[in-house]
Amino acid sequence: MTALLEVSHVSKHFVTGGRLSRSHIDAVVDANLSLSSDASEIFTIIGESGSGKTTLARMILGLEHPTSGDIRFEGKRNAERRTRAARRDFYRRVQPIFQNPFETFNPLKRVDRYLHASARTLFGARTASEAESVIDGALHKVGLSLREVAGRYAHELSGGQLQRVAIARALIPNPSLLIADEPVSMVDASLRMSIVTLLRDLRDEFGVSVIYITHDLATAYYISDRLVIMQKGYVVEMGPARPILDAPEHPYSRLLKDSVLSITDAGTDGLVSADRSESAAAWERVGTATLQEREDGRFVRL
Amino acid sequence: MKAYSWFVLKRFAQMIVVIYVGVSTAFLITHLSPINPVDSMLSSITTRSNFSPEAIEEMRAALTDLYGVDKPLLEQYVNFWQRFLQGGDFGPSLLAFPTPAMTLVMRALPWTVLLLSTSVLITWFLGNLFGGLAGYFQNSRLLKVFGVASMGVQPIPYYIVAFLFLIFFGFVWPVLPISGAYAMDVQSGWNIDFILSVIQHAILPVTSLIVVGFGTWFLGMRALVSNIVNEDYVTYAELAGVPRRRIVFSYVMRNAAVPQLTALALVLGSIFSGTIITEQVYNYPGLGTLLVDAVNTGDNTTVLAVSTVAITAVAIAIFVVDLLHPLLDPRVRAS
Amino acid sequence: MTENVLTVTSLKAYYRMAYFGVDREVRAVDDVTLSVRKNEVYGIAGESSSGKTTLIKTFASAIRPPLKIVGGSMTYHFENGDIDPYAAPKAKVDALRWSHLSYIMQGSMSLLNPVRRIRRTFEDFAFRPMGLPSSEFWGRVESHLQRLDLSPNVLSAYPHQLSGGMRQRVTIALATVCQPEFVIADEPTTALDVVVQKDVLAMIRDVQRQMGSSVVFVTHDMSVHANIADRIGIMYAGRLVEEGPTRTLLAAPRHPYTAHLVASLPRIGDTTPKVALEGRPPNLAEPPTGCRFHPRCPLAIEKCTTDVPPLEPVGLDHRSACWRSAEVRPLTRIGHQELEVAG
Amino acid sequence: MLAVVRDLIRYNKEFTIGAVLVAIIVGFSCLSFFSPVDPTLVYLVPPERPPSTEYWFGTNSRGQDLFWQATFAIRNTLAFGLLVAVLSRIISLTVGLVAGYIGGWVDRVLMSINDVVVALPIFPILVLVYFVLRADLTTLKLAIVMACFGWPFDARLIRSIAVGLRHREFTHHAVFAGMSARKIMFEEHLPYVMPIVLSTAMANMIWSIGLSVTLAVLGFTDLNIPSIGTMLYWANNHSAMVVGTWWWIAVPVVLVVVTFVGLYLLAVSLNEYIDPRSRLRRMGGAALVSATSTLVAEGGAAPVPTLGADVRGEPEGRP
Q1: What are the chain C neighbours of A158 within 8 Å (beta carbons)?
Q2: Do C15 and D301 touch (CB under 8 A)?
Q3: Domain B109-298, CATH
Q4: Which residue range(s) make up the domain with C242?
């Protein structure tokens, strides 16, 4: 079983501030996860802001280099991809989806620019018509068509549409891994589910694995196969998605779940500020705590 | 206060580096010239009669020290720094032989500092005040007039504005003295007549500097404030019905002052150049007039002395302005 | 004395803009009638381009060109009498600010003046409206902070020294220190993390209960409304399409947009397929004719495309603007009531 | 391109005035190519004649026709300003982009050099350079020296834009879409860098011309090349004010003032026009028909970063 992606003992340590007023931040501490290339799955990374989930995603994408440990995609480390050709191969296999659709597209340029670039350089389409058919195919996968998108500027489309175009662009080289960093947080709630279900359909119909980064437990519950919960850089709970979210074991996971508001608590007056004591206590011991395995396959850092 | 002391230390180190690089640049430039100044300056002295031999000897020593052909460049560089650090003993000037060049410079420096500090203070405050009001009250016609005037005057160089003022007050409406720092018949010292005369003579140069400087600050502040006005904390204060005067000064202007102070540190170098150019037009006895006279008489030591002192003075002035920065911006103080 | 604190009758507020020769009128708020009762949290929900932010800007009488009131009227009912902010002189309206009417703005991170200690900001905002001698004023402020379990030494800090959540709490304390009768909150918790969000919402609800004042709470997040609002008004394309008590509106919506909105939200523990709302948010420079939801509405009929449905009562304290409101069924089950799922 | 100019002229008063002034100056300086007389020769016409139908700008004490003299003067001054502007743009663009894009210690080193050069008073150094080189300080050498001191203000500005662009999401998007670094820099990022380069180029021209005129008036340059500065130098030398030939001073002063004001207005309006934010608003103008872009700023989940604030219209300010 060749591993699609292996993240072993990866840590990332930032030093900010000038030479004199230094401040040290451990963004990610000893993160481990692996995706197999046999079965496509949706692997979710859950965490609040500052939990290190985005830093981990950027390291997998090669936008940041880990301070220690290494990340291998199909056996090769990012640092080994020196030449442009090697990097292009990596881009054919791994594609990102960014958070803010309006920031993903250069507001001054037409939207289909990126589609053509991917079709030509990544997919290798030689003629314009070949490129257009590849693009149209990818757009259909996300429920759009080239006619709707050609020649348009980013602000002429809605957030939901733009995000779909971004996903279509990522699908052009038929990647085996999509890394979606909070892909729906900027999209209207009613349209959010259409994109979340789209990610699930991509897994089922096209065998694309997705690393889904979010702070929203509800969407995570809806589409994830496995998930990781991160607290200030540490993986505190990891394993099969639904069992963990139905009955979280780690105090921080429980705190997260209790804090999630839902329309079902209408009229139940359940709005009382969450009790942080247990989670704070667990955080004190995080340095010495280790990941302990449970029967249902999850790991909890206690 | 630990953060503040770190900040001061960092800024002080920056100043030292600027002085070192600037003064070294001056040294290198003087050594670019093909002709060797030693014999040219000595010959022009010895042709003039009855100067004490020790003074001539002293000049020869200084010149060979600095420009001696036989000495390697590195040794001259070391000598140069030794002389600079001993209070700028570059040897006697040609202009007023045998008085040392540095004495002439030290006599001229205070006048430049007087002109520079008064004009910078006035333009910085007035320019930012009116620019801030123009940025906040964008419909007021009076402030729009200021805007148009600033746009008209701001690009005009110091020399031209000073020259136009000179013509106006020299020929058209001669009510102000147009040259020198104080009247001849006044005894210099801390007496009233002298001070009044100094003020009267300074009016024209300072006004000329203010007219040029005001536009820069006015337009910079107006652009800055027209952005700050859309900041959340300003809109929120307006929503809360906080009195307009309090919003304009403590919210809008107070926040705009921080970047405007950094801007002052950035442009101090060019304002200094402008000041000594303006001095020369009114032959105000500052560094500018001294520099031009030195160049016209081929006085190497004084030109070198003026350049090095100018570079050092600007570096110190920038350091002082940087020290004010944390006082205006608590984020720097507490970071 | 009506038991309302604010009545709005057929309010119209449009953006009128001219850009390089292109004149455009955007009908952000188009004929909205609603009233906010005393001692109530009235939630206003709506997605992008629904007009909800423009609506509450008109509530706070904080509009500047190019936004203009083009029709209808609005009246505050405060202790010292009724006042129409758009008819009354500016000075009289400004006198209301912070004493009777306060505002918690979006962008909670940058509402406090960065170069000014929190103490001075409290003084700027609250000293004049409170009208108390200085010692008594600071006593009142400190007790108010204690009640919101904020330590008084937060007053001597600068905003950048506080965390995001703490800054939001201080803003809420600032907006409620004068015990105003009417507080407008525009997406106050959108930028916060889930855990901090719940604390801040609980804080807003507690303060509202202690002061007995009315809060208009705007957010696009229906689950926030479910937890904090007593009544909810749903905005779509500049119009109020449904209004009712929170529980009834979520469990038994009587407008297709609300039904779809509620049904499309994922919940932990619920894996039933979610039906997303198709189509694009409306274009308010040229809104669709008749009911503005008809292009995306599964129940739309000929009448919907021509006539604008009025906001009619459809139940106790429950109004809906839909020609087929009777036939609207909830698309999902909420709570324990047994309601079959609409076709 | 024509549409851009038409748009600017219609909606931007400053641009129109600026363009007219600069056009006059450039036109006037082109006349120098048709000048019947060699500007360096003296005593060709009766000296000190006031402006008249025969000698439009009058003649000076050195027997030169000021009209033709002025065409050469303004041409040389403008050419010098352009040369310094181009040279200093090259340096500030390279330093700014390299520091911005590469970052790390390269950025710190370049920026500390920048901070040192910015703190040096330029006039005394230029005088020192003249004093040392004297005759062989050709215009080209002076231009190079000025360019070496004129780049730091703008390098930091360009760097901050480059740093901003490097971290924007659409840059990562372009990289992953397979665009080459060159294509990203020239097609994606250039429209953001151009406004700064253009407006700072004009500001730099104003600065360098101002300094060169000042040096020339003091006699610190090659005095027989006709330029605005040397004209003023000879006018002073012959104490024009005392003698009464006021037009000898008025001509160069008016010309240089018109040049500066024209360049300045052009720089300000061009910067405002090319500035991506206002371009967005103009595109937004056309796209206002689809009000989603307006009302997206209404709230909901998709705040539009720059467009929202702009589309709400020009702030009318507070009456």
Answers
A1: 48, 280-281
A2: no
A3: 1.10.3720.10
A4: 238-343
Contacts of D264 in chain B (CB under 8 A): 151, 154-155
User: Can you tell me the distance from the alpha carbon of C113 to that of B236, in angstroms, rounded to the nearest whole number?
Assistant: 10
Does a structural domain hold residue C312? yes
pLDDT value of residue C2: 63
Cα separation of A126 and C45, whole Å?
Answer: 49
Q: How many domains does chain C have?
A: 1
CB contact under 8 A, A190 and C267: no
Residue D198, classed as helix, strand or coil, is: helix
Which residues, 6 or more positions from A87, have their beta carbon under 8 angstroms from its beta carbon?
A62, A81
**Contact call for A221 and C269, based on CB within 8 A:** yes
Average pLDDT, chain D: 80
Neighbours of chain D (3+ CB pairs under 8 A): A, B, C
pLDDT band with cut points at 50, 70 and 90 for residue D182? confident
Fold of D2-274: MetI-like fold (1.10.3720)
Residues of chain C contacting residue A276, judged by C-beta atoms under 8 Å apart? 195
Q: How big is the A-C interface in CB pairs under 8 Å?
A: 131
Rounded to an integer, the average pLDDT of C101-123 is 88
For A175-197, the pLDDT digits (tens) are: 999 999 999 888 887 788 888 88
Q: Looking at the domain assignment, is residue C293 inside a domain?
A: yes
Q: Which residue of B has its CA nearest to D217?
A: B159
CA-only gyration radius of chain A, Å? 20
Contact at CB, A190 and C260, closer than 8 angstroms = yes
Ordered DSSP codes for D254-319: HHHHHHHHHHHHHHHHHHHHHSHHHHHHHHHHHHTTSTHHHHHTTSTT---TTHHHHHT-------
The answer to whether residue D296 scores a pLDDT higher than 70 is no
Chain B partners (3+ C-beta pairs within 8 A): A, C, D
Closest approach of chain B CAs to the CA of C200, in angstroms?
19
Q: Tell if the pTM clears 0.80, that is, is over it.
A: yes
Q: Using CA atoms, how far apart are residues D312 and D297, in angstroms rounded to an integer?
A: 8
Between CA C242 and CA C253 the distance in angstroms is 8
C336 to chain A, any CB pair closer than 8 A? The answer is no
For residue B335, list chain A residues with Cβ-Cβ distance below 8 A.
17, 21
D194 close contact with A: CB closer than 8 A? no
**DSSP conformation letters of chain A:** --EEEEEEEEEEEEEES-SSS-EEEEEEEEEEEEEESSS--EEEEE--TTSSHHHHHHHHHTSS--SEEEEEETTEEGGG--SHHHHHHHHHHEEEE-S-HHHHS-TTSBTHHHHHHIIIIII---SHHHHHHHHHHHHHHTT--HHHHTT-BGGGS-HHHHHHHHHHHHHTT--SEEEEESTTTTS-HHHHHHHHHHHHHHHHHH--EEEEEES-HHHHHHH-SEEEEEETTEEEEEEEHHHHHHS--SHHHHHHHHH---GGGTTTT-------HHHHHHHHTTTT--EEE-TTS-EEE-
Do C194 and A215 count as a contact with CB atoms less than 8 A apart?
yes
Distance CA D118, CA D112 (A): 10
For D289, which residue in chain C has the nearest alpha carbon? C285
Q: Which residues of C touch D284 (CB under 8 A)?
A: 19
Q: Assess: ipTM above 0.85.
A: no
Chain B contact set for C90 (CB, 8 A): none
DSSP letter at B120 equals H
Residues 205-264 of B with CB under 8 A from D: 226, 229-230, 244
C137 located within any domain: no
CB contact C285 to A (< 8 Å): no
What distance in Å separates the CA atoms of residue C68 and residue C70, rounded to the nearest whole number? Answer: 6
What pLDDT sits at residue D302? Answer: 27
